[in-house]
Amino acid sequence: MRYHVGPNGEGKRRPGITVRTMEIDDLAPVFHLGEELFTAEEVPNLYRTWDEFEVVGLFTSDTDYCLVAEEEEQGRMVGFALGTTITKSGSAWKYGHLVWLGVDPAWQEHGVGSRLFNLLRDRYLEAGVRIMMVDTEADNLPAIRFFRKLGFGKPSEHLYMSLNLSGHRAQSHRGHEEGR
């Protein structure tokens, strides 16, 4: 067991962390941790949805870029990183996109996110990726600070707009019936 110093200088004994490639048995623990972290209340303007299809889709299409962190003493999963690569037609460049990074709140500020990021970055480098991208909400200051510490810069603003279609359903049905 290793000795970690907390943010207020208090000492805590915590087991070591192992970061490895995600396996099929990790799908449920990753999904459930993501459900706790990526809720509509916590992240109301999230443009992607956290669901089982997101996890399974990334795992089946980009297994090398799906990682888990587990504490060594009990083998409990305490974090994950899910990424993908993007190749644009007409461009020789390959991009790496860290799509999801989640760390159990009890393990935040203990280097788990950095360990996951470092292994993912190394895998992207081995695959010839030239630029790595992340995105987060503009008001998620802890994530912005974390990514800046890792060397990310040049943030660019994106605007995502939404339209609630629930009020349009009745109009749409009436329009289809009138058009018959």
TrEMBL record:
Gene Ontology molecular function terms on file: acyltransferase activity, transferring groups other than amino-acyl groups
Xref: Gene3D superfamilies: 3.40.630.30
Family annotation (InterPro entries): Acyl_CoA_acyltransferase, GNAT_dom, YpeA/RimI_acetyltransf
Keywords, in A-Z order: Acyltransferase, Transferase
Signal sequence interval, chain numbering: none
Domain of life the protein comes from: Bacteria
Keyword match Membrane: no
Pfam families referenced in this protein's UniProt entry, alphabetically: Acetyltransf_1 (PF00583)
UniProt domain N-acetyltransferase: residue ranges: 17-166
UniProt protein name: N-acetyltransferase domain-containing protein
Organism: Desulfoferula mesophila
